[in-house]
From TrEMBL:
UniProt-recorded name of the protein: Vesicle transport through interaction with t-SNAREs homolog 1A
Coiled coil: 2-32
Biased composition range(s): Basic and acidic residues: 85-97
Higher taxonomy: Eukaryota, Metazoa, Chordata, Craniata, Vertebrata
GO cellular component: cytosol; endoplasmic reticulum membrane; ER to Golgi transport vesicle membrane; Golgi membrane; late endosome membrane; SNARE complex
Length: 138
């Protein structure tokens, strides 16, 4: 069970890092969008960053609670019954899984937003070419 938890924690850390990198890339893309369209995407970026902060905080709390449990278990602290410990561990595992699902959903949204941004940049590039051709004709 411990190896599964370590693997899950490593997986969540990896996903958090990927999500942070995607947010940074998206932020750079938003800066390239024309000012008249930028507002909507800037507000989306702020909400994505807030959600990311919440996910990271949830993950950190879960890890702290889990490490406290492991330490108590290793030290033989029987202040809690094994049933309470088991329930607490299941609660932390559930919270970690919930955070993982939310992170995965956030990651999917980030990927979709990145795709939309890429399409917008391509459309803008095509529009620019059309404008330049029209200018040359005039």
């Amino acid at each position: 069970v411990s190896d599964d938890k370590k693997q899950m924690v490593a997986n969540v850390e990896k996903q958090l890092e990927e999500a942070r990198e995607l947010l940074e890339q998206m932020e750079l893309e938003v800066r390239e969008i024309p000012p008249q369209s930028r507002g909507m995407y800037s507000s989306r970026m702020r909400s994505y960053k807030q959600e990311m902060g919440k996910l990271e905080a949830d993950f950190k709390r879960s890890r702290i609670a889990y490490s406290d449990e492991v330490r108590n278990e290793l030290l033989g602290d029987d202040g809690n019954s094994s049933e309470n410990q088991r329930a607490h561990l299941l609660d932390n595992t559930e919270r970690l899984e919930r955070s993982s699902r939310r992170l995965e959903a956030g990651y999917q949204i980030a990927v979709e937003t990145e795709q939309i941004g890429q399409e917008m940049l391509e459309n803008l590039s095509h529009d620019r070419e059309k404008i330049q051709r029209a200018r040359e004709r005039v």
